[in-house]
Amino acid sequence: MNIKERLQTDLIQAMKTHDETKKWVIKMIKAAIQLAEVAKGQELDQDEIMAIIQKEIKTRQEAKADAEKAHREDLVAQADQEIACLKTYLPAQLNAEELKELVRSVIAECNATSIKDMGVVMKTLQPLLAGRASNAEASQVVRELLTG
After folding, report:
1. What stretches of 19-147 show up as alpha helix (H) in DSSP?
2. N- or C-end of the chain: fewer Cβ atoms within 10 A?
3. Domains (ranges, CATH) in the chain?
4. What pTM does this model have?
5. Model confidence over 46-97: pLDDT tens digits?
6. What is the rounded distance in angstroms from the CA atom of residue 127 to the CA atom of residue 141?
7. CA pair distance 3, 49, nearest whole angstrom
């Protein structure tokens, strides 16, 4: 079952169980996918849909940080619920050690030796991540390994 079919099935289930948060999040994802498909002029593949979901997670994390600064616990809790719902549509995330191992192998493959090679490493690494880690996390690990 692809992500779009799973979203539709989960939306129906959320409507039946009256899970308003999940229903709202799924409708938002579906709208973002549809908007991107209209802009592109064709259906999106699974990787592009995962990128949209990751973008939505990043948006929620930024909103959560702003809510924490404003001491709005209700908005922080809402953002946490939305992030948890969005993460269910991504593949299993890499833990810190798995990410470091993947980055080490890409650095060795690219023969990267300094921070100047970071762009090459990131370009090679991004397709391998495939939604299993954010670009920000990967970038941090690459920078850490190339400078250390």
Report:
1. 20-40, 46-69, 73-87, 96-110, 118-129, 135-147
2. C
3. 3-87 (1.10.1510.10), 96-147 (1.10.10.410)
4. 0.76
5. 888 988 998 999 999 999 999 999 999 999 999 999 999 999 998 888 888 9
6. 16
7. 8
